Amino acid sequence: MALHRRSFLKLAGIAGTGSAFGVFAPAIVRAATAIKLTLPWLPLGTYSFTFAAKKLGYWEKRGLDVTIDRGFGSTKVCVPVDQGQYDFGLLDMAVQAGCVGRGLDLVAIAGIWPRSPIGIFSLKELNITEPKQLEGQSIGFDVGGGEFQLWPAFVKATGIDAGKVNIVTMDAPGLMRAAADKQLKVIGNFFGSIAPTFWANRIAINAMFYEDYGVKMCSVVAACKRATIEKKPEICKAFVDGLMEGLKFAYLNPEKAIDLHVESLKEFQGGAPATREVLFYGQEVGTSLGFVPAFKEHGLGTIDPQLAEVTRQSVETYMGIKNIPPANELYTNQFVGAVKLTPAEWTDVEQRVKKELPSMRG
Predict the structure, then answer these.
(1) Suppose 246 and one of 15, 33, 52, 119 were both cysteines; which one would form an S-S bond, judging by CB atoms 3.0 to 4.6 Å apart?
(2) Who contacts 162 (Cβ-Cβ below 8 Å, separation ≥6)?
(3) Total-model pTM
(4) CATH code for residues 5-115+217-353
């Protein structure tokens, strides 16, 4: 099936709006508690599980009416959630830890991507396979993204001369268009966000994940204010359970989850088949990031204490933020554990998606 650039770039066009991506569920008799959730980025296929949770009524049956908004990068999730503009936000845990170190009071209440897909991605034709080869190159970033905030960590871990790298900053749609047009040949981003751009245009890339070079960390988590946990634990529990049901549905029913995603957003309706393929590809990449022992043994959303500590140490060591509280104050597992995959389901899904994320060094 032929893929067309313009069909994928409809995704980028969404970034020009500030409107809520609310999904309308059937009317219910009793009034539901209105909840606002912000994604960390555009509503790409990596976040189809949130739209599945909404459309299938997983939050509604728990008394929540959740509105889903797009995000502008993990860094720009911290303040709106801390200030109460959003009840919950999805963001990179390392960015969350950095924000907490700077005085915000956010707590992760569920893990989404225990594996980190942050990295530097370059056109294969450049043959960039080692960090030192980035010297002399121009790298495109969205300044609100976790990959940009953690760029100093990657620089410090690899020993490259940042002064020899030209940083080009763009907003989300500009970055995606520049990648599709090959105006920028090196991009810093989340693999699940930027890889579909290259994939849709049949552009081969090389990947260097921060994690491969010692900057290990938990990636996307769901977070809220500490006061929300203390004053509204029942809301947190209902939100997390619904979110994890949506995540499980997307794991087990990827095609149906994308159908629900497309139905939820008018921007994707009536588009070319290529748009749906790109969403599906992103969803499978996101799914591949969740296959870790903590999810398998203790339930979806479980945050591994050791990984939380490593994340904290990485932020302190590489970003120089010294006021980060102990790791056990950055997260809680009190709301997770109710949603699990059976051993057979786990094996089936793991085999299906393990090819989607390039192998990491360890």
Answers:
(1) 52
(2) 151, 152, 155
(3) 0.81
(4) 3.40.190.10
